[in-house]
Design a protein that fits this description.
Layout lengths: L7 E4 L9 H13 L7 H4 L7 H9 L5 H21 L7 H10 L3 E5 L4 H10 L8 E3 L12 H10 L6 E5 L2 H9 L3 E5 L5 H4 L5 E3 L7 H7 L2
Parallel strand pairs: 1-2, 1-4, 2-3, 4-5, 5-6
Helix pairs in contact: 1-4, 4-6
Length: about 220
Amino acid sequence: MVESDDKAVIFDMDGVLVDSMGVHWKAWQEVFARRGVTISPRDFEKTPGLCARPVLRMLAGRDYDEAETKAIVREQAEAAQRLLRDDFPKMPGIDELIRRLDEAGWKMAVGTSGPIETIRLVLDRLDEGHRLTTLVVAADVTRGKPHPEVFLKAAEKLGVSPARSVVVEDSVAGLEAARAGGFKSAAITSTFPADTLRPLADLLVESLRELSPAILERLIR
């Protein structure tokens, strides 16, 4: 049984824990350049939150078979991890928010379409990353965002109902997934403009420093 006072926050990774849009753009450029493909920044701007196949289709304008899809995704992840090791763009306010939520008794998880190796690297670079031990990553789900599977699995692992959980997201697909799963959501404008996110989010902020346990608790009352 889930206790009535249980409450949870589920963090997306890219654009929430780490300001990684520039990192992923460079990594995708590198991977596609090896294949003689030039990708468009305008197309790339539409990809945050999506899983591998839609991203590849959007960037390259074609579908790849399963083996090539896995190869491209693996190469991109390796390139992104290398770039993150060289220069880690931590999201301002994330460590303080994680610490305050933990001390206030919130359960926490990460729900991301990224690979486990990347999220482990990110958590290792955060001062308070050790407090985030419940992870749901790309390999754990069969349906990517905007399907809510990643968040539903995270809530199940935490033992907290979606109605008592807040998803912190930066992408349209992620906010759509949160809404579809019955979660409340707090959106940060690190990746998409406010006007794009506002209709999908229960709360909109420009910085994680605007969030606190008390503010998030108002969303689930």
